[in-house]
C-alpha cells in the first residue's frame, strides 16, 4: 500500500495544492481513441485492471526519494509518476494499490548490471541490448547445467503471489527454484517449459510462472538453471501479482535513458540503420516483434501509457538521444507511427504523456536540428492520425511562451525538483512526481 507520506501528498495536490507547478488537471486529447482503456480504469472499483507504462527515467522513478543512481529503490514502487497515477485513481475508486512488475534492465546502455531488485549468481549476467525479449531486448539467461541463478528478496504477506516473466526455446526444460527466510523450500523443479505461446516470429516462447508465499516475512526466491536442456531466460518479476482484487496496477515497463525507439523493438522498421545492433535489418524483424510482445502482451494489459522525456529524445550528447543516430523529425514520426501501429495490432490503446522540458542552455541540446516543441507536436500529430492513441502535454499548463519561459515556470518551485541538478533541473523530486501523477490521473478521470 502507499505510504502515509504518499497519501498526504496526494490529498494536498488533489485539493488544489499544485502551487507554482500549476493546476492539477491536464487535458486528455483524442480521448475517444482510448475509450476501452478509460472504461477499464474507471471500473477499478469492481475489478483489477492492469496497464503498462513505456518510458524513460522519470517513468522508472528517478528523482523520487531524491535518488538518481541506477540502483533499485523501493520509493520507485510508490512514489514514481506511474505509481502516483495508479494511487490517485485507486484513492478515487477505493481500489487496492499494487506496485507492478520490475524489469531486469532499468538503464539503457548498461549491458552487464541488472536492476538491483535482482541478484545474479553463478556467473549469470544480463544480455546485451536488442535481443528477443525484455526491455530493450535485455534479459538474464540461465544456461542449462550451470550454476547461474537470479534471485529476488521480498518482504511479503501470507498468500502473496510472486510472478516471474521469462522465455525459453524448447519444450520440456525444467528450471528450478528455492526459497529461504520466512519461507523455506529446497531446490525444486518448476513446471516444464512449453512451446505454446510464441514470441515474435523467431524460435522463442513465453515462460511465465507464479509462486505463493505461505508465511509472512522476508523471503529470498532463487531461480536456478535447469540441470539439462536449453537456456531459460528471465526478464521480469511482479512481487505482488494480483489478478482479482479491485484496483489499478500500472506496470513500469520503462528504462532510464531510453526512447520508445530503443525500448520497444517494433518502433523500428527495415529502413532503419541505427541504433547499431541486432534489431536492425529485415532478418531481425522477429527479434523486434518478440521484444515488443514481452513488453505488452504478457501482463493482461488494458492499455499503455507512453511517457516521453523530450530531453532524452532530442539530446544528442548523452549517448542515447536521437541525434546520435541522425534521426530527423520525419524519423521520429515514422517510429511513433510504427509504435502506435504495433500497439493497435495487439488491440492496445496508448496514452502519450509528453512535456518534461529541459533548460534550453543544457549543453547536450546545443545545436539540435529541431525544438522540444516540434517533438511534442509530432507526438500530437501521430496521436491525432491514429485510431488508438490519445495525448497529454504536461507543458501545456505553462502557456505558449518560449520553451525557456515554460521551463522556468515548470521549475519555479525548486523544492519539487532534485536539488543536485540545479540550476538545470531534469528530474522531479517526490512531490514533483506526485504533482505530475495527479495531473495525469485527473486528466484520465475527467475524460472517462
Write the layout of secondary structure elements.
Layout: H1 4-14, H2 35-42, E1 48-54, H3 57-60, H4 75-79, H5 81-93, E2 102-103, E3 118-121, E4 140-142, E5 149-156, E6 161-168, E7 176-181, E8 185-189, E9 198-199, E10 204-212, E11 217-224, E12 232-241, E13 247-252, H6 260-263, H7 285-294, E14 301-308, H8 310-314, H9 329-345, E15 350-354, H10 372-385, E16 389-393, H11 403-410, H12 430-447
Parallel strand pairs: 1-13, 1-14, 14-15, 15-16
Antiparallel strand pairs: 2-12, 3-5, 4-12, 5-11, 6-10, 6-12, 7-8, 7-11, 9-10
Helix pairs in contact: 1-12, 5-12, 9-10
Please identify the structural class as seen in this structure: alpha+beta
Strand content: 15-25%
The domain count comes to 2
CATH topological fold name of the largest domain: Rossmann fold
For the record, what CATH class of the largest domain applies? Answer: Alpha Beta
How much helical structure, as a percent, in the residues? 25-40%
Q: Helix segment count?
A: 12
Description:
With 448 residues, the chain is an alpha+beta fold. It has 2 domains: 4-98 and 244-253 and 295-447, Rossmann fold; 118-241, Jelly Rolls (Sandwich), CATH 2.60.120. Helix content is 26%, strand content 21%. The chain is built from 12 helices and 16 strands. Strands 2, 4, 6, 9, 10 and 12 form a 6-stranded antiparallel beta sheet that branches. Strands 13-1-14-15-16 form a 5-stranded parallel beta sheet, sandwiched between helices. The longest helix is centred in the last third of the chain and has 18 residues, at 430-447.
